[in-house]
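Per-residue structure
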Amino acid sequence: MTALAIRGETPSQRARRRFSLARFGGRWLSPLLLLLLWELGSRTGLIPERTLAAPSAVIGTLIQMVLSGELPSNLLVSFARVAVGLLIGVGLGLALGLAAGLSRGAELAIDPLMQIKRTIPALALTPLFIVWFGIGETPKIALIAFGTIFPVYLNLYAGIRGVDPRLLDAAKSFGLSRWEQVWHVVLPAALPSLLVGLRYALSISILVLVVAEQINASAGLGYLINNARDFMRTDIIVVCLMVYAILGLGADWLVRSLEARALVWRPSIVEN
């Protein structure tokens, strides 16, 4: 019996595994090369420290900020802002998308306003929100909520309107009521579109947070960046940008995990 047989792998399976490992390693090659060149440029003086701190200095600062508790405490403040803003924005997007998707009258009332809102960047409203809500936490949360409404609304609306009519005909033939059709047919069929909108909303919330925390913040990642800018601490700025990036990746992973659990019934054309 050969070693291949003991492993239980066919030659094609073994080749695919090697290709997957090579592809995984190749994805990390260019970022590692960039970090190496960055470190080399910093050590040789081509990249001044006041322009951009070396990766080794950034890692040292990151460890120091974590051990001192400075980064976790400010990260918690930023996370709370995103969570509250998302809760409001996603909730409003769900309600408006559901109403417009299920009712022609609601569509006529809601969709024109949402299309107007789509053309207004959330960040352009920053001065107006400061006038309305002051410089506390409210304008920051309001900006995040305003920016995350539309992707949830649009994708849920499109998902509802894109339901196969044959599914609704089948539901009617089984004697399902209007709301039973919505619950058992329309919403499950619109769920993939809704999750796409949620992924967009999470990404937008991180982008808006970066700018919103520049509004007279006394805590949060934006507060750390403002202080670091005043003292030319590029290492702290890079650390905070890394945390923003990790927040974005974490949000995307969360929705992907939700998709994997909620859409197990959906066939996939992608082979492992």
Remarks:
- The mean pLDDT is 83.
- The CA atoms of residues 171 and 269 lie 27 Å apart.
- DSSP finds eleven helices and no strands in the chain.
